[in-house]
Specification:
alpha+beta
């Protein structure tokens, strides 16, 4: 059995290079308005200053991941990794429960219970460093 010398043809299979689709950042429709980035014209003016990192950072989408508890996230203001500071505030659900309890006859103090129970309140998430208000978690 003679071995085939160099005659082995490797079938060439052309794989189409899959270009990674550019991530689409939601620049519109977010709940926060970011200042427009400065026009990229620093090459002529900024000569004496140290290089400034003008990497356009995508807007941080913070809505949707919050609950009523402190949540680890990135502060949109100071861009640090933080765990949000939660402040509980009276929201629609608190007042709705209070008024509905009042209507069913619990007028002697019971109707105020929802005003003091945390799980019925809205939660304000803010940055513990810069006190930037990040998100308000609404029950209703
Ligand atoms: Zn911050």
């Amino acid at each position: 059995m003679a071995s085939e010398k160099g005659c082995v043809e490797i079938p060439m299979v052309m794989y189409e290079p899959q270009e990674p689709s550019a991530p689409e950042y939601c620049s519109q429709g977010g709940s926060y308005e970011y200042p427009a980035p400065p026009p990229y014209s620093y090459r002529e003016t900024a000569t004496a200053e140290p290089p400034v990192y003008l990497v356009s950072q995508p807007p941080i989408i913070v809505a949707g991941i919050f609950s009523s508890r402190p949540t680890p996230t990135i502060c949109p203001s100071c861009r640090q990794h933080i765990t949000t500071q939660v402040t509980y505030r009276l929201g629609k659900l608190s007042y709705l429960l209070c008024s509905s309890l009042c209507m069913v006859g619990c007028c002697f103090g019971c109707c105020f219970i929802p005003l003091f129970v945390r799980i019925f309140k809205d939660a304000d998430h803010s940055c513990p460093y810069c006190q930037f208000h990040i998100y308000r978690y609404k029950r209703l």
